[in-house]
Amino acid sequence: MDIFVVRAIMLLLYLTVFTVAVSGNFLVVYVVMNNKRMQTVTNIFITNLAISDLLVNFT
Questions:
Q1: Alpha carbon distance 54, 27 (integer Å)
Q2: Contacts of 10 (CB under 8 A, 6+ apart)
Q3: CA separation (Å) from 41 to 14, 37, 55, 58, 59?
Q4: CB-side neighbour CA atoms (13 Å) of 39
Q5: How far apart are CA 30 and CA 7, in angstroms?
Q6: What is the pLDDT of residues 39-56, one digit of tens each?
């Protein structure tokens, strides 16, 4: 198999995972921060995990 095809497939998969991870974690942070009813101790902990996952996604 040609190395260009393999690289193109890997790039497409990487971009898909990156996009889904960033959008999902951003939505978690957005919903918890903008909805007072969602701001429980458990949800704040989940928001902190989402923020740390965003930082990992960008590195």
A1: 11
A2: none
A3: 33, 11, 21, 26, 28
A4: 5
A5: 34
A6: 999 999 999 999 999 999
Contacts by 35-40 with C-beta closer than 8 Å and gap 24+?
A: none
What is the identity of the amino acid at 7? R
In the structure encoding, which two tokens stand for residue 27, read together?
């939505």
The number of C-alpha atoms within 13 Å of 42 and in the hemisphere containing its C-beta is 2
Instruction: State which amino acid sits at residue 31.
Output: V
Specify whether the CB–CB gap between 27 and 59 falls below 8 A: no
pTM of the predicted protein model: 0.82
Helices (H) and strands (E) in the chain, counts: 2, 0
